[in-house]
Design goal:
Length: 111
C-alpha cells in the first residue's frame, strides 16, 4: 500500500513543483521538467518489483526511441504566439502531432 501511495504522491509533487517553479522562472520549470525524474522512478520501481534487467533494458531501448518521437508535441506550444494558436488549440495540435509520429512508429516500425 505504501508503494502505491508513493507512486501517486511523487508524480503529483513533481507536477506541482514544475507548475509553481515555471510561474517564477519558465527556464527553471523547463529544467525540472526535462530531468528524467519520472523515468528514474519508474525504472527503480520496476526493478524493485521484478528484478528483471532484460525487461528494463528493453523498456530503456523503447524509451530512447519514443522520447524523440514525442517531441513534435512541443512545436505548436513553442510557437503558439506566431501561429496564432490559443493554449488548448496548441495543446491539441501537439497531441495530434505526437500521436501521428508515435503511431506511425508503432504501425510501421519494428515489431
Amino acid at each position: 500500500m505504501t508503494t502505491i501511495l508513493l507512486r501517486l504522491v511523487i508524480p503529483a509533487v513533481i507536477i506541482f513543483a514544475v507548475s509553481e517553479l515555471s510561474r517564477r522562472s519558465p527556464r527553471l520549470g523547463a529544467l525540472l521538467l526535462t530531468l528524467p525524474l519520472v523515468s528514474i522512478l519508474a525504472f527503480a520501481a520496476a526493478w524493485s518489483k521484478d528484478h528483471d534487467l532484460k525487461s528494463l533494458s528493453q523498456m530503456a531501448k523503447e524509451t530512447l526511441i519514443l522520447v524523440p518521437l514525442g517531441l513534435p508535441f512541443f512545436i505548436p506550444l513553442a510557437f503558439a504566439d506566431r501561429l496564432g494558436l490559443g493554449f488548448w488549440n496548441a495543446m491539441i495540435t501537439g497531441l495530434i502531432l505526437a500521436s501521428l509520429t508515435i503511431g506511425a512508429w508503432l504501425a510501421f516500425g519494428p515489431k
